[in-house]
Design brief:
CATH superfamily of one domain: NTF2-like, domain 1
Largest sheet: 4 strands, antiparallel
Shape: rod-shaped
Helix content: 40-55%
CATH architecture of one domain: Roll
CATH topology of one domain: Nuclear Transport Factor 2, Chain: A
Strand order of the largest sheet: 1-2-3-4
Order of helices and strands: HHHEEEE
Number of helices: 3
Structural class: alpha+beta
Strand content: 15-25%
CATH class of one domain: Alpha Beta
Amino acid sequence: MKCIYCGWKNPDTVTFCRKCGAQLTISSPDKPLVSFPVSDALTSLNAEHAHARRRAIWRVVWIALAVVLIGGAGITWWVTSATQASADVTQTLQTYCSAFKNANWQQAYDQWSNTTQMSEKDFEYTQQSKSKVIECETGTISTASSTAQATLTFFYANGSSAADQINLIQENGVWKIKSQSLS
């Protein structure tokens, strides 16, 4: 007998649908109807609930996986950005140091931001009055969104050294020196 509620095909001898549990209508008076055991109905309902629970668990698993992947991507982007910023600052400082070692005052001067550049002649005079730079060492670098600080140690031909605090800013997407505490 077909259930009018869910469409399940049941044996003609049952009074309740074995799928949904609805009472079946009597199709002919000469066939006696017998009901199926309640345990069958409960088994069917338990199976449906178990299936629904499994679907809900899988939804939670997929959502958690998506959160982890998106969060991981965000952390990766943040770390990569911070590493890239630090690398760009290091490049500016290495270029600055190289310019001093080669007495290329124009190249050193070009590492300064437009807002803090002094006249080229003053810059060259200030730097020439010092002993020749033979080596530089970049120390700790800390970056923010558009500013950075670093320690740059200069080693001079006369055997002396000076650890200067360098403040940098981003100017048109390029790290430039904003100030230098001269030792």
